[in-house]
Amino acid sequence: MIYSIFAQVYDELMDTEVYENWLTFVNNNAYSGKKLLDLACGAGQLAVMLAKEGYQVTGVDLSSEMLALADERAREDDTKIELVQANMTDLTGLDQFDVVTCGLDSLCYLANQEELANAFRQVFLHLNQGGTFIFDVISPYQTDVIYPGYMYNDTNEKRAFVWESFEGQEPHSVVHDLTFFIAKDEENNLFQRYEETHMERTYELKKYLELLTKVGFKKIRASSEYGNNEIDEKSTRFFFVCQKL
Q: Is-contact 239 231, C-beta < 8 A?
């Protein structure tokens, strides 16, 4: 994947309100301290915002390209965050934290329930007693009803972006085909084409609750709309706040 291309375009397209809402969601639910691990931190938008709020942030991502972008963003904002390349299913060697966050359905990129359970187990092991795990996932309604047939296009003088989504082979899964045309010269006469395929998978609410309980979380709250609403049959995203007691 050309993560750097996707990250730059994604930054341009993503409504900053999403990160502001996530920041509020974390502030409202981070009960136990300021030492925070941001899993799948990507290009570092949320990690930098959290650091500016006074959290001691460690950002983890599997992609070195994403981490390079996160480091660049932190330096530009004169903000200190620690960045670590790691898979969320194996956080061996990392410290203990008061809060762990994983936003923007990053957990849905894990291939199966075993990987998801491993990620939950790793989070639990690296949380201090009383610590909080805050994350979101897309819902089966999003994968089964909203995404299939979805298309989004965005263009400007320097690039064009096409996003198409299709139903995946596994239950509650979706395939995103992304195509980029990026200008190669200053006159914007030549464009390079890049393609990426992203696959996401989610589960029914009861499965998430079952896996979280099995790894040891005792207090689990699930909601929609950043904790502001109850989950119903048309909720597109589940938000979780889990405490290690």
A: no
Tokens 């691990």 locate to: 37
pLDDT digits (tens, 9 = 90+) for 84-111: 999 999 999 999 999 999 999 999 999 9
Do 116 and 213 lie in a common domain?
yes
Q: Which of 225, 233, 232, 219 is nearest to 31 (CA)?
A: 219
Distance separating alpha carbons of residues 115 and 138, to the nearest angstrom: 17
Kindly tell me if the per-residue pLDDT of 149 is higher than 60: yes
Put simply, whether the predicted model's pTM sits higher than 0.70 gets the answer yes
User: Under DSSP, is residue 167 helix (H, G, I), strand (E, B) or coil?
Assistant: strand
Q: Which domain holds residue 180?
A: 142-201
Q: Are residues 35 and 114 in the same domain?
A: yes
Q: Are residues 115 and 230 in the same domain?
A: yes
Task: Please tell me whether residues 107 and 177 are part of one structural domain.
Answer: no
Instruction: Indicate the DSSP class of residue 87.
Output: B
The number of distinct structural domains making up the chain is 2
**Read out DSSP for 94-159?**
---EEEEEE-TTGGGGS-SHHHHHHHHHHHHHTEEEEEEEEEEEE-HHIIIIISTT-EEEEE-SSE
Task: Tell me what percent of the residues of the chain surpass a pLDDT of 70.
Answer: 95
Judgement on whether residues 116 and 41 belong to the same structural domain of the protein: yes
Distance CA 120, CA 123 (A): 5
Same domain for 132 and 224?
Answer: yes
